[in-house]
Protein 1
Amino acid sequence: MTATSSETLDVSGTPAVPFTRLVSVEVRKALDTRAGRWFSGSIVLLSLAVVVIYAFAAPEDSRDFGDVIAVAGGVLGYFLPILLILMVTSEWSQRTGLTTFTLEPHRGRVVGAKLCGGLLLGAGLIVIAMAVAAIGTVIGGGDWSITADVLVKGFLVANLIGILTGFAIGMLLMNSPAAIVAYFIYSLVLPIAVGILGSFQEWFADLAPWIEFNTAQGLMFQDEGAPSGELLAQLLVSGTIWLVVPFLLGLLRLLRAEPK
């Protein structure tokens, strides 16, 4: 009686999945579903509707391109982070994580692909928002003046921070409803609560930019030119509390979580 010999399959020479392919897959996953397409389209349509209303309702001296792009950026800033949240939490809320991490077992590459894909989608929506702002400027009959502060800090930097914030919250909670609620509490409820407390206590108003990231960002947007040393320190401290720490904790949790 002869024993059957079994050969071990050597996959050490198999090339890894290209990172660009992972990024393209994550972008497709965000847009291929009906919910993803409708949500992305709704962001654009809502931005267009708000900009058109603003173009007709705003005073004539407030219809410049800089004013309109600030309005479009404000709408985009509230909803773009939700798109990033859904990109992260979809693996867990829709139970596709087992398939994803089986096809690509290196979770760090998947997370990086999701972040890069989210940045690409965000860049695309930012460009569309700029086009919408241009349409609003034409409708309102405003001129094309815009300051570097409005374009860079109030539009580009603000939306980049929003993208990273949404990504961090999504990784930390890994649940779509909970992450969306947490994001709106962070972006809407928390600044209002801090503002109310600051109006009653002067010492808390001075402390707020150091412990609340939205307050520090508001000061950055109001400040013309380069931020002062104190403002940079406030952004660094509050940003570490509300962005860097949640991002690192969320990344650690996502890398260790058990797909179900």
Protein 2
Amino acid sequence: MFEEASPDLTDEQRMILDGANRFVTEICPFEKRREATKAGVTLDRTVWGQMAELGWFGLGLSEEAGGFGGTLEDVALIAETLGRGQVLEPFTMCAVFPARLLVGIGGQTDLIEKIVSGEKLVAVAHSEPDARGDVTRIAVTASPEGGGFRLDGLKSLVVGGDHADVLLVTARLPDGSLGLFRLARHSESVTTEGTRLADWTSGLDLRFTSAIAERIASGDAMAHALAAARDEAVTMLCAECVGAMDGTIQVTAPYISERRQFGVPLSSFQALQHRMADMAADLTIARSAVLRALSFLGAPSAERAAQVAGCKALVQRLGRWTTQQGIQLHGGYGITEEYQVGQYHKRLLVTDAMFGSRDVNLSRYTGHMLSRMMEAAQ
């Protein structure tokens, strides 16, 4: 999660970054993405398998848990590179999020190993249509049924869900506690409706009608594991957004140097030089915010959640502004489906809808900081 020339990168991180850059350039160039979206492809299982072969899905997980070691900073390097490369495959939502969640609850080594190897694609069905960005509001219910549980309710925006082999579903138990349930995507009594999102990735809406599922965790421990995994996933999404900001600048700077108006390059106009400088400054601030969030992932839950929420609110604001400037500096060319810069902005729009909007996350962050100030004043 550093600039490529940063002296703070370790030798191992430079290798990870070099490998991720080669992957984007050789396996997932923008031209391939463009052709895939024209064909309606939102996830390529061959590409997913290649990502698994590189060991990315096990990065940041201990060997005891079924991973390959490494740190979350290493994972963020990959996330940023994939965001810069506009890779369609949902690395954060279908690899990082479910794997970290399963590690947190424990006892799911077999499924973790299948995620790490790429054998199984797992999606977490957590978001709900009536939650209004509040990730703690869970209305799907789970009732005992024979040796399992019966799920009823709606889940929305399950990214990668239409390609998943396994669904991990959060639901409320009769006593009001939270549970995590496992079932196959093609289970009976599960109605699905796929949606192509603005950035050409896919989301799935699920309706459970007495769907039988296996409970794999519940109670306070499960709720804590979910909150931790969610914060880690949000941080990786923010890293992807930083990659999108960086990509916007990398595409825009050469364009305004080559595009001529009134007989001179656009880059010769001081106002546009200042605009590009502001974009670069915002990129640095956003990258620093993600690094700060990464440093808090091991903090107590309340502080961790607040810092991650603050990171998402800030990165979304800076990211949307930066990508909007990229579009404006390209003129009408910037909003076409065939060109990269508009796709970066659409990615920011989609990530803003995940795990609460920037306004919801800003409210969460400011509420926590206000509480701390009031405690300190007493």
Protein 3
Amino acid sequence: MLGPCSVEIAAGLIVALHEPDEAPAGLPARQLPAGSLLAPGFIDIQVNGGGGLLLNDDPSVETVRTMAAAHRRFGTTGLLPTLITDAPRRLTALAAIAGEALAVPGVLGFHLEGPFLNPGRKGIHPLPHIRQPGEAEIALLTRFGMVGRSLLTLAPEQVDGAVLKRLAAAGLRIAIGHSDATAAEVAAAVGDGATGVTHLFNAMSQMTPRAPGVVGATLADELLFAGIICDGLHVDPVNLRAAFRATGRDRLMLVTDAMSLVGSDKASFLLHGRIITLKDGRLTDAQGTLAGAHIGMIESVCNAVRLMGVTIEDALIMASRTPARFLGLDKELGRIAPGFRANLVAFDATSVLATWIDGRP
């Protein structure tokens, strides 16, 4: 971590760091309050909704804009709006606007969570829309490889290795999730191009003495990045700490898995015809199934310190530098250093004070 300094920004980039009393005269400046921190803006690779809207309900530029603005209030300056398993027409609708939506400040690409998942690990995903890859849908998905840094979550035991290779070769990041894969199947998927795991511990095969599952394979494989939901509800704090000790800050990424209620005053929403209710910070359907999370990135960072037992520096790296590396953007995002984009967040012990995207507040 840097000590007190002045950050000089020009044309959307950080151009210099100065000692506090050596900043160039005559430039407009903002003095942050004593006790606050300036950090690289948070990058959230799993954002289902925000500001009262859900991407699945209306895959449009305006929905994406509303979601990005809602999460920016919680320090997120880079995100992947996430489309969960749905009818093919929703994916087609998102593909139609994805290129235009990349112009929304903060949007780095899209996360397609499904539909090639294991029905036995579906979680809240609608069973009727979980399906096997077909040629038309594979071709449509490859288009997302040219849309920023987009991500596809799939269950490798449901997808032929040749298809996985094709999707990865098209430019998609491939993550393993909603999967009952064995450790051998995970290893094969990594060989075919998978580089990530979606919401570690949740909706996946667990680690047992003779069957490591997706969890054990993730903890052991140094090539895999892993997203983790740090809300204190999805993953027990003991498992949070175990995951950090096994993977470290350079492989573990904080994600929100946020739904539409984040950044709104609503207490419920519809998801595929089911009423999802917020109570005591938990989003569930009538059967008690968790349906995403009600959390912003600043809370994820604070929870990582409190529940995972890491330093604030570790938490900030897991919220910025590591997801930037996963997306292949670590030469431009995730650090406060000359030449990097001026995507920044200022915060104190209680709230986000300000954000900048490409130097713009």
Protein 4
Amino acid sequence: MLSNFFSKNEVSADSQKAINAFLDAYRSDIFPQGIQVIAQSLTMRMAKKIIQIKMVLPFPCDGHLHDIAEQLSEVMQQPVNFEVEYNIKAVRQHNIKGIKNIIAVASGKGGVGKSTTAVNLAYGLIAEGCNVGILDADIYGPSVPTMLGLKGAKPSSNDGKLITPLEANGLSAMSIGFLVDDADATVWRGPMASRAFSQLLNETDWPELDYLIIDMPPGTGDIQLTLAQQVPVAGAVVITTPQDIALIDAIKGMAMFEQVKLPVLGIIENMSYHQCENCGHHSHLFGEGGGTRIAKDANTQLLGQLPLDIRIREDADSGSLAINENSTGEVALLYRTIARNVAAQLYYQLDMRSPTTAELVLK
């Protein structure tokens, strides 16, 4: 019981009991079996008439804890605040210095918004409270520099051996687009592209990162398979759109990761709907339910659904992403929810307490 974690302090016994009961019963998308199952420590104290609950959790979830604090404040009839520390551990052992977990973002085909989703996923994880980097593995068409507002920027080296990654709004970034002209990388043969990617990953002086997001090249050919085999990936996320032609390729992408025995954390369905600016009605222009269906068939998660929204496209083209301008905006909150789901699923996969597809409720 949570009461065993509580320190003896000025919080009344009745308040402890009420908080204990609330947290013991609480269930959500990322806490399908409750908070107490995964909280590594939990204490509380009073500070200026605010109940301060301090705990250590194994994955980032700042936005979700804010919602829980609001609910608990209503129950307690006084302000409640969480002080949280994240103890994020490596799921897979590897020799890449500074990086705990590598997450590959992939798609079976181009044009589904993979790179845009990868960048916003990285920023979503940062907004939820952790240290994140991104590696642009799309050797043939690097787009991350543009999306980060770093096009034309060149990295440096402090020791002449390792490259110092560039930084954009707290995100450490490396891309072949920082090192060569756009036209040069497109003529590389597969083995040369693979070697270039390996150098980018292993010869970058990464800071201490909880997660490194790798924006994989689209498709399921030799280059994608080689990269999947080379990289110590902890889990993969597959991007699709709802129409059948994209879903077929997403299934191929999941099969590729299964072939190399890399776990798929789930599906992100991009361009799921268009929301009317006037009435808020959702129009499913490319079909409905496709991501849910293939996630269920593959026994994996539907991690989130993103709208067809001109703001997302404009932000990516301009290098000024909405999630950095307003981390509580409508679009930003969607990416933050997906980021929490990805991080939680990675933890539960390691912890052998993974929620079933039915238990993962998107909010």
